[in-house]
Amino acid sequence: MCGIVAYIGNRQAYPILIKGLHRLEYRGYDSAGVALIEEEDINIYKTKGKVADLEHYAESKNTQGTIGIAHTRWATHGEPNDVNAHPHYSENDSLAIIHNGIIENYALLKQALEAEGYTFKSDTDTEVLVQLIEYIKETNRCQLFEAVQSALKQVVGAYAIAVIEKGNKNEIIAARKSSPMVIGIGDDEYFIASDVTPIIEYTDKVVYLNDEEIVQIRRHEPLKIVNFQNEETKVDVQKLNMNITQLEKGGYDHFMLKEINEQPRTIVDCIRGRINQSATDVKLSGVIDHKEKFLNARRIIIIACGTSWHAGLIGKHMIEEFCQIPVCVEYASEFRYSHPVINSDDVVIAISQSGETADTLAAVELAKSKGAFIYGICNVIGSSIPRATHSGTYIHVGPEIGVASTKAFTGQVTVLCMLAMAIAKEKNSIDHQRYLSVLKSLYSLPNLLQEVLKLDSQIKNMSLIFTYAHNFLYLGRGYNYPLALEGALKLKEISYIHAEGYPAAEMKHGPIALIDNEMPTVVIATNDSVYEKTISNIQEIKARGGKVIALVTKGDQIVSSMADYSLEIPPVDECLAPVVSSIPLQLFAYYIAINKGRDVDQPRNLAKSVTVE
């Protein structure tokens, strides 16, 4: 959550930092700030609100300097306001810090510093850390690098930090633990950021900092990275495979709409090189290289959060149907604290778009400590979860800027289907004709998604009818039940309308009491193995005066005649219907949110990359 940017080099830092903060706005935030060293002073400008508010505030200020740090804050300790915004000064204004994460023992540290005469202006845990660094530096008469190193040994929690020092125009000290940080290497200049989006405009050479590493970035000198044991670690420079056009709206009004419409292409990228052109075979190197782990798996545990968890539920259906391996799907946040029983013959699949989800990353570390084999499914190359897992598969859908996940969801489900097919083939647990049928459907997905996008204008018009509904119910069965959860989540996230997803058969065990002519129900009723059962559920809604919006297979007449409104999707294998059906639900949520005047790319209280508990 929130974002950090820093720069040291020959250019003016302020324009680079502001542009970087704009690139990171998708992560979610409530205030923004910047600190610059000019001559002997550190100038800090910060304000509640958007980066544009910060720009307006700093218009008349001195923004000179070739070294600086900047931040977008998502409030954890202390309300969103100007004082709690980052950066923070130390007691004598000699240091400035930006920080992502949470310092869990900040109260004890603050109490000890107050006993030493330190005072605090903000309610944040971050100010405690910069005061501690200053105290250690002054008490031990040491350099900034050593002071940061010593302070972090006393800290419990998660952080990505960057610190600058008054009068020192040649150095930034940065460190990370359980919060992402990447360093860009330019021509006699360095960039620091939470992810690569602020960097790719300037360089394609990056270094991903690992947990419990501290980096000394000095002008005209190579990077120096050490761990907490003060051992110097190798500087592993990697080349970025991304371009700036992927971070722009490309003529669309919002990133979310762009990303919905990108899905035919992103699924091509997802399956490229994995399914052959005749659609007769699938190969995933992560399965091939660790075949025995999957063949001997007693159980598969899928851990994820939010939309990724919904994708995991669909993956469970696929793996159990095709591979005959029992699967459980766990919220990563609950898994960590549920005293899970994990064995060495378990395979744990961790799903995360960003690869930085704090709860999922912590669950990965827990499962690894118990001896399980960990397989990651992520989008962001070089992120923490891929580096923490034994193997895995990237979904390759490109940067997802809109907070509400769209193309990452369909990419995750597509990869899970390919994974299930690859394992099933190795286990000989799937009929060959069924194997070929699913692969053919996988290969045809881009064309099917292109076809379903033609529903855009119909959905846009239909959304006008339901914009002012206060509640929605989403129903599905089998493979479509997780999609009902996902459709409800999309509506909640960006329109702020209350919505619930349910297995359709469970409606009569409580939620049916809510049905009336003011509560619309979205029913995913494609032609599948539970189609007849879903018809019965629709009849129960209509008998109670409920309004029904149905997703049906093209050519359907039974459900279409019963529903008040229907949207037709092209026929596809049952296991992949959620991929095709997800697009109408994404568009429906999008247009309702637009009608209500919501900020669809940056909905309130949400962050793209949830890097704190």
Please give a handful of descriptors for the protein shown.
single chain; 613 residues; alpha/beta; Glutamine Phosphoribosylpyrophosphate, subunit 1, domain 1; Rossmann fold; 3 domains; 8-stranded antiparallel β-sheet; 20 helices; 23% strand
Entry summary:
The protein is built from 20 helices and 24 strands. With 613 residues, the chain is of the alpha/beta class.
Can you tell me about this structure?
The chain has 613 residues and is α/β, with parallel strands linked by helices. The protein folds into 3 domains: 3-246, Glutamine Phosphoribosylpyrophosphate, subunit 1, domain 1, CATH 3.60.20.10; 250-430, 3-Layer(aba) Sandwich (Rossmann fold), CATH 3.40.50.10490; 455-595, Rossmann fold (3-Layer(aba) Sandwich), CATH 3.40.50.10490. Helix content is 36%, strand content 23%. It contains 20 helices and 24 strands. The strands form 4 sheets. The protein has an 8-stranded antiparallel beta sheet, with helices on one face. Strands 5-6-7-8-12-13 form a 6-stranded antiparallel beta sheet. A 5-stranded parallel beta sheet has the order 16-15-17-18-19, sandwiched between helices.
Structural class: alpha/beta
Low-pLDDT parts are none
CATH class of the largest domain: Alpha Beta
β-sheet strand percentage:
15-25%
**What does the main sheet amount to?**
8 strands, antiparallel
Per CATH, what is the topology of the largest domain? Answer: Glutamine Phosphoribosylpyrophosphate, subunit 1, domain 1
Number of helices: 20
CATH architecture of the largest domain: 4-Layer Sandwich
The 3D shape can be described as: globular
Number of E-state strands: 24
The pLDDT mean sits at: 93
Helix content class: 25-40%
